[in-house]
Here is the input.
Amino acid sequence: MAREHERAETFYNAKSEANLQKRLEQYERAQQTCEPAMVKYDQLDELLHLLREALHFCTDFGRLRTVAGVRSELMAILSLIEEIDDAKLPHILKPIGSHLDDLLVPFEQVESIHTELLNLMPEPIVDALVLAWHHDHLSHQSHGRQRHYHQRECQQWLDFAQGLLEDQFDTFKGLVFEKLDSIVNASSLVEMVNSLIRPFLHTCRGPLNNHQLKLVG
Here is the structure.
């Protein structure tokens, strides 16, 4: 992308007709190189997003994830990443694969906690409190509108659980939040994966200035 931007600037500054044609050819070659790199970047960026979601303790419906389920999701996503044609990716994916069992350790605790909570309250209430914790957790990692969104979602699920639990709400809410907070923080797992793949994303994209961002848009 930086190369395409450079050639575009050179093309716009060309004066003579012959020079203009030469610069145009250079720009078109740079653009042809840039387009597949952008596609590759977008594919990997989307798959990294899916990796982040797979490492959350619960689904979007509040159901706490299992070790087997997370392992299956991660293997499927890593398989899709491997299909992206780039020589650097196997080297980047190797440490993720070698740490797969480490990534799954917190979900063993999640499974145990889920069983324990189901012995204390109905599953819909467990799911609601888990979702409240999930959005509260994400609100501390977000900014602006995204933070407000997670705060609203957290409060809505707390209100739902409170309507069902009544006088027991504070006790069970505190129990769920405390137990999930006690597990290895999910963001550390996400950051581990990000730290391994982020250098490749930067290599695909290269440094961007404001003009280049407008070019991409």
User: Anything to note?
Assistant: Residues 28 and 64 are 50 Å apart (CA to CA). Residues 1-105+185-217 form one domain. DSSP finds ten helices and no strands in the chain.
